[in-house]
Amino acid sequence: MEAAAAVANIRGIQLIFQALTVLAMTAYLFPPNAKVEDGATFHYIIVGAGSAGSVVASRLTEHEDVTVLLIEAGDDPPLQSVLPAYLSYLKQSQWDWNYTSIPDWTQKCHKGGVLDVIRGKALGGSSSINFMLYVRGDPNDFNTWADITNDQSWNYNNILRYFMKSERLQDHLILSSETGIYHGTDGCLGVTKQWNNLTHKYLHANHEIGHKIVFDTNGRDTLGYNEPMFTIADGYRQSTAYSFLGPAKDRGNLFVLKNTLVTKIIFDDNNNAVGVEALNDKQEKKVYKATKEVIISAGTINTPQLLILSGIGPKEHLVELGIPVRVDLPVGENLQDHFPIIMTYPTEKWSSTRKPINPHSEPIPLLIGFVALNKSQPYPDYQTISTISDPDVALGLCSFTLSFNDDICNNIYKESVGKEVYTVLTSPNHLKSRGRILLRSRDPKDHPLIDFNTYSYEQDLDSVIDYMKDVDRITQSTYFQHVNAKLLTPTGCEELAFGSREYWSCYAKCMVTTLWHYAGTSAMGSVVDSRLKVYGVHKLRVVDASIMPTITSGNINAPTIMIGEKGAEMIKEDFHCY
């Protein structure tokens, strides 16, 4: 098989799933589309039913006297979202915003010289289309937030209870272990742990080169390698649409508008946010009003877009767009991601007799690891996410999911035919480079400009090289030596001496990609205060991953859900909604 054929096969399956959407097979799981009159008034309006917005809506409507309008640009998550094994068919579909980055020299090995910026456009947001890893981050991440905001309510000891409040962990081995005290069992979000025999030889190989093997990195000590936890339970993806909105779908005080794009925040003469303008699925302009607060949970890309459209953003950019300046704030700045490097190792002979995929389970075995190069350092420098697959799956990951150029993916496939493929995403936790979000125009339907500015901070590339070299030590393990497993060199770096810093630099510049962990564009301390209120205006709050001043160590969905829990509690405190 070649890369083009792999992509064509995936496109064909997507068409089949697309045809099934007319049956609305998942609609019974989610709130119905509300009938809301133009000009209707609610206590709270929440823009975006994503990883955080769905949590806020669910928690606020626990109080029966509070009315909430939740507005979502997308529709219900489809069958391929609800069934975990089919996650790879959600990219570049109607449930994806289908954004791309602006061209950049670090994306030269991707199709079109850009990164595909996958963002969920459905109830649940990106929790409905992500890879479902449940990773909380390191305590140091949240202690850093507390220091930046001068608010200790954000330190790890104080935010732990929000993780536990959400969680319904279904694993007796973890719960009975010494880290069981860090987990919840009564929350909305079902969480399970992977146990797969295919991982054992790779765990042993990593242990042999000096890494700890641990049960659980979601407690207080994150360092080590283990099989991950997933937001999968009872055979279903635990998106926040499924886990938080599903149980609330019959509440009479929750009104959900789907396929509705919010285009502007409305303010009164005293800078109070009092409502929103929106376009429904018929492109009709509507106005909805809020008596208490407008809460923006549109995500790291769409939240800054809406704020800037509403006159809150960098003055120079607003003037350039012809938008009246309401507040001059660095909205859209501080864009962060983890920017992993893909490292591919064909290992032993692949057995074609293994069982077919269970649609109710994770599609392929994974390992995750958190590593500090300085062994006395208590928090990780980098994370690894490693897949174990056959060559066809590795080809699909390369050519469709990550959209690398065909020549690169075809070479990986050629070198992997008949073998098991161990693919490592080496993910730096704390890069210093920062990107930004800008608007193309004043049209809210225009995709924003997404500039990642990767490796703009020179030391980032040096750090990445050190992390890659550390990962590649696995080839010194007994198992990798036995099967003669070596790292595959990307096209264009073959002439450089393997192991030299020039080689690793070439490798990193070609094989850097995205993990879709976007954060920071409405950060605490610069755009919002520690209670997530937007500076310079009133009755406007941001509750999503854009408020992270620094990105967490690892996948960001669980921390975003935590932000939703904490944000909802702060709103209740401010308005005595208990």
Detailed description of the structure:
With 578 residues, the protein is of the alpha/beta class. The protein has two domains: 3-95 and 121-131 and 239-335 and 517-575, FAD/NAD(P)-binding domain (3-Layer(bba) Sandwich), CATH 3.50.50.60; 194-237 and 337-511, Glucose Oxidase, domain 3, CATH 3.30.560.10. 28% of the residues lie in helices and 19% in strands. It is built from 16 helices and 23 strands. It has helices at residues 3-20, 53-60, 79-82, 139-149, 156-166, 172-175, 200-208, 240-248, 299-309, 315-321, 391-401, 406-416, 458-472, 478-482, 501-511, 557-575, and strands spanning 41-47, 68-71, 99-100, 116-117, 167-169, 189-193, 224-226, 229-230, 232-233, 236-237, 254-257, 261-267, 273-279, 285-296, 312-313, 327-328, 341-349, 366-371, 382-389, 419-428, 436-438, 449-451, 540-542.
Q: What low-confidence regions span 5 or more consecutive residues with pLDDT below 50?
A: none
The beta-strand count equals 23
Number of domains: 2
CATH second-level architecture of the largest domain: 3-Layer(bba) Sandwich
The top level CATH class name of the largest domain? Alpha Beta
CATH superfamily of the largest domain: FAD/NAD(P)-binding domain
Range of helix content: 25-40%
What is the terminal-to-terminal distance?
59 Å
Strand percentage lies at 15-25%
